[in-house]
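Bit of a strange request maybe. I'm writing a small parser for structure token strings and I need a real example to test against, not something I typed by hand. Could someone generate the tokens for this chain?
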Amino acid sequence: MELQFLGRGGAFFPQEDNTSAFFIEDKKLCLIDCGETVFRKILMTGLLERECIEEVFILLTHTHGDHAGSLGSLVYFCNYGLPGRPAIKVNIIADRRIWLKVLENLDSSLCPFELFKLTDVDGVNGKFKAFSEVRFIRTKHQGDEPAFCIEFETSRGKVFYSGDTRDLAFIGNYVRQDDRIDKMFVEATSLDYPENVHLPLTGLDRVIPKSIRDKVYLMHFNNYECIEMAKALGFQVVECIR
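Reply from user aminoacidic:
Good idea to test on real output. This should exercise your parser:
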């Protein structure tokens, strides 16, 4: 399972666009998160038209603007933005604990229910050959706001996608307890302070052994210095399509 990235920036680093990953299989697009810059990036790259996409599956980690801010625009475009060709079917995949917030997001964009289907992982499991199963894992991010990591079961092992999290202990335990990791995509920030709602690079350096950093790809950066620091510590850094 090979993920490509539309962006690798955090909420306050729009120069690198909002962090969002995807892969394409049999004219189906599997997209992880749909922040404020994602719809624009999809338009700029011509991704839907170039790949003749017929169905989109959008996996949401949580509903902050830099992860769900252009969801309504993408839903509308898939239904009405490609004259002369059939509408693209849109499936929004989210843990049930954030369904209400997803619906509020779409309601604010005046998106009628008939333009999309909202479902849990049952709506995507079995739809792709790239993975046999996907699951949402509850994590800690900002206060008690529900946020989730995503784990894919693939033929080569587990592919882990952190979304936004502040739970450094969970990342450390995940690395130590699971020997079936194929790749990990983990958020990172150069900032390190007690109330941080993201993962500091200094903390990741402590809990992720150097021996596995060839399979740990960092993302959701807060500035270019953070990217360079990540490379210097031996982590992989996601690259974005242009």
